[in-house]
Task: structure prediction
Amino acid sequence: MMKKVFGFLRSMRFGMILLTLIAILCIAATALGNETIYRSWYFIALFAMLSINLMFCSVLRAFSLKKQKKALAQRAIQAEAVLPVKEASQWLETHHFRVEGDVAFRNTSGFLGPFLTHFAMLLLILSAACIFLLAQTQDLILFPKENTELPDGTVLYLESFQLEDETGETDYCSSLSALLPDGTETGGETTVNHPLKVGRYKIYQQDYGYAAVIGLKTEKNAEEELIWLEEPAFLSLDGESGVYYSQIFSNVKEENGEVMVSRSGDMINPAYEIQIVDGEGNRTSLVYPGTVIDVGGITFSFKDPGVYPGMRVKTQPEWTLWMLYLSFALMLLGLYLCFFMIPEAAHIKPDGLSIIGRKDISDRIDRYQDELEMGSSK
Result:
């Protein structure tokens, strides 16, 4: 019973079932936009079982390499001669066969092909799992002309953000500059599906939002200071008198003496909901861009709402990428050995040579026979 279970776990059928289920889940995650599927217990369990399947295949193939070579030699000994070669030893040497006892071999590295391919697939899964599980993500909001510092000391500065390009096409483009810990300056643009590489980080354009933009001027500071507010805040010099910013309405309409407001959609006729706090008490009011008020020694100048990007910053250990590159290189090598280095075994007989391949090599035998005929005609 256990032998049957073990045989099924290492079988290609079981591997194909697992790959099909994983593909279905990946399609579902992409279609639904639900990345939590990739971290679900059943998705991880399927990957674990696929790893076990490939590990069994790789280990068993590694242990069976000598048996495969011995079996191929036995077949060559039992086969009939297909090449009427007179100087067999010289012909074998010319065609790069290596004599080992009674049998000569060629392309013996091809025995490693299936093992390397299965091992590369296992390494690919493990490297993908490491990249996925060890990746660190940070979601951040950055207002234009402001900066933030990342965990390794990299300073990220947002030059500008735009929703549309010059032609009016939707763009969602953030223009960034960065100062790396070693003092190197770098930067560029990030758009949807086109992340920007900054040092050890990849910066993805994720979403956007609107923020209140308010100019502040005091008697001590004649120069106006612009601030961006994404959340409610109380703006005051003494902590008592000032303006409490509450929220933005994207569209404010007055119909039949009633004010109708909307928080969703484009900024068609925006307005800010605020509370004025002074000696006369608290007064809630709607103010439009262009409004200027003086409260508590501050001149508040309400500007048009500004748009800002939401970005996702990702980083991962560098060795995981090298592990991924190694798995691709090993897979290419394994596939090359499988398809282009087919092992052959030849045995010298009284009437010529018998040649057997691990796969069908009838085309190659035909070529050998053509060479012999051309040589004899000369």
Summary: The mean pLDDT is 86. Helices lie at 2-9, 12-32, 41-63, 65-78, 88-94, 112-134, 318-340, 362-377. Residues 211-307 form a domain with the Tumour Suppressor Smad4 fold (CATH 2.60.200).
